[in-house]
Amino acid sequence: QVQLVESGGGLVQPGGSLRLSCAASGSIDTINAMAWYRQAPGRERELVASITSVGNTNYADSVKGRFAISRFNAKNTVDLQMNSLEAEDTAVYYCSANIFTRTPLWTVRNYWGQGTQVTVSS
User: Fold this and answer.
1) DSSP label of 27
2) What is the pLDDT of residues 6-57, one digit of tens each?
3) Which end of the chain, N or C, is less surrounded by CB atoms within 10 Å?
4) Cα–Cα distance, 105 to 87 (Å, whole number)
């Protein structure tokens, strides 16, 4: 019914940049907050950045000043611009969104994408 699909991951050298994109589709009435999470091998999943429906943002201390989250409401997408990438940024990045739907029932819940691999290595 609702699907989130991430794209833009890949291999990049330290100091490089990548831009991740997440597109939501399906029976969507309203998308509330959207966020990017990541999970590295042997580590717990952590919140990287979030953005509210009105554009308020929040970042993990480890990425503040290097990453920027943005959303394009008309397209139901959220992006994560990643600059000055470090080896420690290597992880699977997941998109999430809190979405209100009307079909088949009025429901508000969180949805998750399948993830996209980001590898920072020289």
Assistant:
1) S
2) 999 999 999 999 999 999 999 999 999 999 999 999 999 999 999 999 999 9
3) C
4) 44
- In the chain, what is the greatest distance between 2 CA atoms, to the nearest angstrom? 49
DSSP, collapsed to helix, strand or coil, labels residue 62 as coil
Q: Which two tokens stand for residue 8?
A: 């833009």
pLDDT in tens, 36-50: 999 999 999 999 999
How far apart are the C-alpha atoms of 73 and 26, rounded to whole Å?
A: 14
107: buried, middle or exposed (CB in 10 Å: 19+, 13-18, 0-12)?
A: middle
Which residues are 107's β-sheet partners? 101
Q: Which residue's entry shows tokens 């993990």?
A: 60
